[in-house]
Amino acid sequence: MEKKPTQEITKLQELTYELTVGQAMSPEVITVSPQNTMAQFREVLRANRISGTPVVEDGKMVGVVSIEDLIKALAAGELNTAVGDKMCRRVETLYADEPLVGAVDKFARFEFGRFPVVDREGHLVGIITQGDIMHTLLRRLEVDYRAEEIHRYRASHIFEDIVADEAALVFGYRIIGRDFDRAGEASGNLKTTLSRLGFNPRVIRRVAVATYEAEMNVVIYTDGGEIVAEVRPDRIRIEALDNGPGIPDIDLAMQPGYSTAPEWVREMGFGAGMGLANIKACSDQMKLESTIGVGTRLEIVIHVG
Amino acid sequence: MKLREIVAAAGLTVRTVPRQLDAEVTGGYASDLLSCVLAKAQKGTLWVTLQAHPNIVAVASLLDLAGIVITEGRDLDPGTVEKANEQGVCIMTTEHATFTVVAKLAELGVPGVD
Hints:
- The complex is a heterodimer of chains A (about 300) and B (about 110).
- In chain A, helix 1 packs across helix 6, helix 8 packs antiparallel against helix 9 (about 200-220) and helix 9 runs antiparallel to helix 12.
- In chain A, the strands form 3 sheets. Chain A has a 5-stranded antiparallel beta sheet, with helices on one face. In chain A, strands 3-4-5 form a 3-stranded mixed beta sheet. Chain A has a two-stranded antiparallel sheet with strand order 1-2.
- The longest helix of chain A has about 30 residues, at about 130-160.
- Chain A has about 300 residues and is α+β, with helices and mostly antiparallel strands.
- Chain A has helices at about 5-20, 20-25, 40-50, 65-75, 85, 100-110, 130-160, 185-195, 200-220, 250-255, 265, 275-280, and strands at about 50-55, 60-65, 95, 115-120, 125-130, 170-175, 225-230, 235-240, 285-290, 295-305.
- In chain A, about 30% of the residues are buried.
- By secondary structure, chain B is an alpha/beta fold.
- In chain B, strand 2 (about 25-30), helix 2 and strand 3 form a beta-alpha-beta unit.
- In chain B, helix 3 (about 55-65) packs parallel to helix 4 (about 80-85).
- In chain B, about 45% of the residues are buried.
- The model of chain B has no long low-confidence stretch (mean pLDDT about 95).
- The chains are: A alpha+beta (about 300), B alpha/beta (about 110).
- Chains A and B meet through helix 8, helix 9 and helix 12 of A and helix 2 and helix 3 of B.
């Protein structure tokens, strides 16, 4: 065994925790009833090119029957026996909402070719094979790989072509106060720019949420201001500046749920007192400075990778 | 589950140019507070809300949501649909209340985003 797992293996393992059984399973399940004969079961297998099915009676799953059971029945000349007499009653199932890693474990522990997938109420919602898992993982890897390729191509080109000991791209966005029609444009444009630069979607999400909250504070409480983003390969620094009324008590303002927003702003779903808390949750460093009657300066740093 | 299947099963009315209906819905989230949506909703989440003003479009677009379902037959503010079409956000409406819509989504197997 190699000491250091390759990146692909780590990525695959990560994906098995990220994806759910429901995302990988096949939702169309072919079933037979315990009253069907093994001969009928054989036809079901042949017509659908499958090697086993769950056995369902009155909407409830009562067992699983496979090609192995069929071969045994054939050998014993019992093709007219009911499926209910030949099926395996001990059924191992998976939950649709459990991580895919649970399915990988089960395939390793049991020698079954497929597992029925049930919801938390026990209803049969799908079926999963090892092939389904491979297919889902490969498809997802392909998507991630393509995204990663674009990221490498674009981002590395921009920063590598610059000859400097340190390089940063600086983007500035003007924010118009009380203009709810254009609110969100600054953070939207910054998000688009970072996507084009190929930053990781998780980093972009943090930047987008923090910047949007900062932008809305400027829109709601001031006549206007600006957002400046300084983008480096390893970190993104965002400043939100305004000449508004200032925050009298920063510690109080930072408390989740505390808000001074007027009623009509709250009715729009803003001003819930969660903005600064959200910004904090999204950033690695956050600094808020404010002087009454002069303005407010918010600085946040988000590390990349 | 594809947005198209949810629209059909839940009887939603699509109000935007129907371009994003093949989007995969990965979960559901219901709130009328935008900060809560920003904190919780993920890429692919279907957002159920009473809010109908254009600012919901920016939130959905920033988070790459699968779409927005506006409940209780609320009239959309002028500009909301226009903005949504511009930014590629799918907006759907329904006469039902938020609870009813959420219950239907749960029945369809859309997991909640916590």
